[in-house]
Amino acid sequence: LVLPAVCLCTFRAMSRMPRLLTQLLASVLAARVALASVASTVASVAAVGDANATRWRSLGKNSGCGGPQQSIAAVAASTLQECKALCQGSCAAVEFHAAQGACSLHHSQISEMRIVPGSECVRVLGDKYTEVFVMLPLDVVTSQRTLANPGKLESIFDELTNVDIDGFMVDVWWGLTETSPGVYDFSVYRELFELARARGWKVQVVASFHQCGGNVGDACNIPLPSFVLEGEGIWYEDDAGVQNREYISLFADDVPIAGGRTPIEMYRQWLEAFAAFFAEDLGGLIDEVMLGMGPAGELRYPSYPSDRWQFCGVGEFQVYDPHARASLRAAAEKAKRPEWGTPPNSSAVGNYNSYPEQTEFFTTGFSTDFGHFFLDWYSSELLSHGKNLLALARRVLGRKIKISGKVSGIHWWYDTPSHAAEATAGYYNTNFRNAYAEVSQMFARFGATLDFTCLEMRNTEQPAKCHSNPEGLVAQVVEATASRRVRLGGENALQRYDVWAYEQIESYKSSLASFTYLRLTDDLMAPEHLATFGAFVGAMHGDGKVGDAVSRDMGASDEAPPPTLRL
Predict the structure, then answer these.
(1) Which of 142, 318, 354, 554 has the most CB atoms in a 10 Å sphere around its CB?
(2) Is 280 a catalytic residue?
(3) CA 383 → CA 29, 138, 428, 450, distances in Å?
(4) Which one of the listed residues 95, 246, 381, 491 is annotated catalytic?
């Protein structure tokens, strides 16, 4: 401790000062010494904290670090955390042996996992490392609750280990797992998750409270539980009275239906059963639980069902079921404008396949007093539904595991004043409102990750007549999440294998916590496609650029595909 000159003078003068003043100065000097000691301690703790703040990827329990074995140092360590703190400089991984109290420090990259009982291999992830997951087929679990072709699946997983993915995402279907009211069976998912554990992968789980079937790319038919489907008056309904049974209307969240249980109660009980069954794996093998909050698992209204809608129609508001009508009437009464309690009909808002300029509402009506009121109510109800689901997930699952929700990338009509297609889906992104800032703020309350789609799309791929702007939309979401410190995850909306799409995804890498590729197919596993995908994974992990790797290694063309891709 270096004391200022004034303090040294103080000592010489102490004998001539009153005793009280002397004691005061002595206390000040003691405090300076104490503060210096605290500062020294904080600095040393910070050094350890910096090491422990490093991003890590565990290969799971009973795992050993495989690959080149040069430059391995063995040191003593009583905990995995202590072992990690010893990993400095060029250290690439640690292998902690609990029984021996030993830590192996690896200074070469880990390329494979070995089975070592009682050990755990943990890799260091660089600052430029973005995790990449692969979404499994929707019907990887059959309606008989068995794995579809498990031998083939294991063989594919073995091939995927060579491209170093971080894990997979899978839908855990409500319609398969709650076999009767309050009775749950997750056993087949345990079997599936063990395949991930054996390869040192992590699992992203989708709590799929929607049906499988009826959306773009759906190749399965898994309805909601039969005891739920028996409910009446709880489904989204359009102006023509057509019901959508893909997901229970959010306006019926608190309506008792199956055995007196409300949808919110059923969602909570499902999560409780899931958390109890996989208690030891939450926050470890199971890295994240995504809440299904609407059709296709997305936080939105079913405004563009595939059996009634074609790209690039504006879609339709879903406000005609009895509970939605009651909610709108109550909001209108509260606003002291009871005449606003009737939802707009098709003569004003058009139909699923209308263009904005063909409607009164999306040309002028959206900016009237009623337009402001209606769009605010419609979007607020969606946000409230999302808030309720994220809140119960955080209560049930705790803080040791990531939770997330998906927001749809509705890019058509983005470059028009009304943002019509976003509006019918529940995203209020007009009238000086920022839909994605409001959604991000809600996610931030619960420390939830916002997962966004359409990251592979470029504006040049879209037809001019639809006024699409996927790049501008993604940029708005990136800004909204970053400014509110919300983790951003990403997905592609359409199955793509070309470098052009991968490069577009890679351009958002610095903003992404993780990326989940849609989807595992036989086409992806074709040698030429798998090689390109492997280069993409390497680029997301910080190993160069996907375009450079593919062009150099395989002579692939960087030419953009023709603009034939749509949704």
Answers:
(1) 318
(2) no
(3) 56, 27, 11, 13
(4) 491
308/310 Cα distance (integer angstroms): 7
551 in Cβ contact with 558 (< 8 Å)? yes
Distance separating alpha carbons of residues 131 and 515, to the nearest angstrom? 6
Listed as ranges, residues in the chain with pLDDT below 70 are 1-54, 68-71, 111-112, 214-219, 551-567
Amino acid at 250: L
| The total number of residues written for the chain in this structure | 567
Tell me the C-alpha distance between 167 and 156, whole Å. 13
**Choosing from 95, 131, 298, 316, which is the catalytic residue?**
298
Matching residue, tokens 């050094």: 47
Q: What is the pLDDT of residue 90?
A: 81
Tokens standing for residue 130: 């973005």
Read off the tokens for 187: 């056993």
Among 491, 258, 252, 518, smallest CA distance to 388 is for 252
| pLDDT at site 215 | 58
Q: What CA–CA distances, in Å, run from 367 to 177, 332, 361, 362, 375?
A: 45, 17, 8, 9, 10
E strands along 197-272, which residues?
202-208, 235-237, 243-248
DSSP state at residue 399: S
How far apart, in whole angstroms, are the C-alpha atoms of residue 386 and residue 443? 8
CA atoms within 13 A on the CB side of 261: 14
Question: Measuring CA to CA, which residue among 129, 127, 165 is closest to residue 516?
Answer: 165
Q: Determine the 3-state secondary structure of 267 from DSSP.
A: helix
pLDDT tens-digit series, residues 400-451: 999 999 999 999 999 999 999 999 999 999 999 999 999 999 999 999 999 9
User: pTM for this structure?
Assistant: 0.82
Report d(CA 425, CA 410) in Å as an integer: 8
The DSSP annotation for 518-539 comes to S---TTTTSHHHHHHHHHHHHH
For residue 282, which of 133, 402, 156, 405 has the smallest C-alpha distance? 402
**SS3 state of residue 168:** strand
The verdict on whether 491 is a catalytic residue reads: yes
CA atoms within 13 A on the CB side of 213: 11
Which pair of structure tokens corresponds to residue 144? 């008989």
